[in-house]
Amino acid sequence: MTKANNFQRIRELNYLQKAVLAGALIERMLPNYGLFSEATGFGDEALLRSALNVCWEKILLPKSKIDLEKQVEKIEPNVPELADFDMFGTYPAIDAATSLLSLMHGLMGQDEQEFISVSKISQATVARFIEYQMTVEGEVADNKAVREHPLMQYEIDVLRELIDFVENMGRITSENVKALKKQAIADGQTNIGLAL
User: Average pLDDT in the 48-70 region?
Assistant: First the structure.
């Protein structure tokens, strides 16, 4: 299945389906931030975790008086600056935090494009990780090599499975959101293949 098919399918989901899919993808990305934070002492993974939990709550209870603006203000200072860190882990950490901000902005502005961005960011994180690994190993990391890499194929498969799951959820309840979150991390690894 080509990449376009997954993104086409995401575009066809309804607003809430796109939101829960984005949340599920962030569940896979967030531990990358935690590993970066542990290694550098920068940022607070618990803060991001808490903000993601608030987003799930907002998705399930859209009329709740949750102040996402306040959450955004808490997250922004926790996005690492690339120039401040000389390590690859900075990229997936930035991507995880940026995805979370996209989810929050999407929920605040009811902007589905923000939710679609999350799946694109997740795939870009994987692509960058593959390029980095291949370059370190002295291999040529062209588009074809990255696209055909087992980790990218796996990312595409996981995304397809999550889309299938979301399409079949029916009404979005706390029960099936729990099941979706479980599905997202069932393989015990982040989107770049690091153990949870």
Answer: 96
Mean pLDDT, rounded, for 155-184? 97
Q: Which residues constitute the domain of residue 95?
A: 3-184
State which amino acid sits at residue 57: E
Burial of 144 (0-12, 13-18, 19+ CB in 10 A): exposed
**24 vs 61: CA distance, rounded Å:** 17
In a domain, 81, yes or no: yes
Which pTM value belongs to this model? 0.96
| Alpha carbon separation from 183 to 38, 64, 85, 126, 170 (Å, rounded) | 26, 26, 33, 19, 16
Across 15-157, where does the E strand assignment appear?
Answer: none
